[in-house]
Structures are given as C-alpha cells and as structure tokens.
Amino acid sequence: MARMPDAVAIHATADQLATVKYDANGLVPCIAQDITTRSVLMMAWMNAETLQMTLEEGRMVYWSRSRQEVWRKGDTSGDRQFVREAYYDCDGDTLLFLVEQEGKGACHTGEYSCFYRAFGEGQ
Question: Of residues 123 and 104, which shows the higher confidence score?
Fold first, then answer.
C-alpha cells in the first residue's frame, strides 16, 4: 500500500495574512510547485476562506471561478496536494505553495503539470 502524505498545517500570523492583496473579486492567484522536482504544477485562485482552509488543513483548497465554489484539490480525482511550505510575494498579490503531489498529477487533463505545452516550433 502506498504511503499517504501527512498534512502539515502552516501557522500564518495575522500580519502575514493581512499582507495578502485580493483582486476586485476577492481572489488571489496561487502557484502550486512540487517540493521535490520544483516543477510548477498549476495555477489556481484562492479567496480568504480557501487560503485559511489550506493553511489549517495542510491540503490545497482553491476557489473554482467556473463553479463558484470551494474546490479541495483531489476530492474527486484523488490527485491531492499536501502543503509543505507556503509563501507570498513581495507585493502580497501572488501565493506560492510547495506541495507533495499525490496521484497522477495536478492537471485535469491527466498530465503531471498543467504546464506541459511549450511555445515555439517543434514543441
């Protein structure tokens, strides 16, 4: 039986959370990056609620703009993401989570990363 990754809660301070800048829709872009390979897995959106849920639960929880609902990564696909480290950028308007990816990968197409296509000839 495969080892189940442990969830790791991140204890952010109130000042750190207050630094996060949300857009007019109350959302902030979030990058998920594989902690081992350093591959960028995906970009999705978070709101204040899903950011708090992610930090507390140690599992990636996003906001689905298309469905207008909380989206806990992997609840349907089984391809869960477990938080290992969490960062916010210098402007506070982009989040970066280093995660342990479980299952096939992060992309809904079945690819390991959503960034599997390159620009340029012969790609």
Answer: 104
CB 26, CB 52: distance < 8 Å: no
Instruction: Enumerate the β-bridge partners of residue 59.
Output: 82
pLDDT of 63-102, one tens digit each?
999 999 999 999 999 999 999 999 999 999 999 999 999 9
| Cβ-contact 121, 72 below 8 angstroms | no
Judge whether 47 and 22 are in contact, CB under 8 Å: yes
CATH number attached to the domain at 21-101: 3.10.20.810
Closest CA to 73 of 46, 39, 36: 46
- Phi and psi of 51, rounded to 5°? -65, -45
pLDDT at 116: 93
The 10 Å Cβ neighbour count of residue 82 is 21
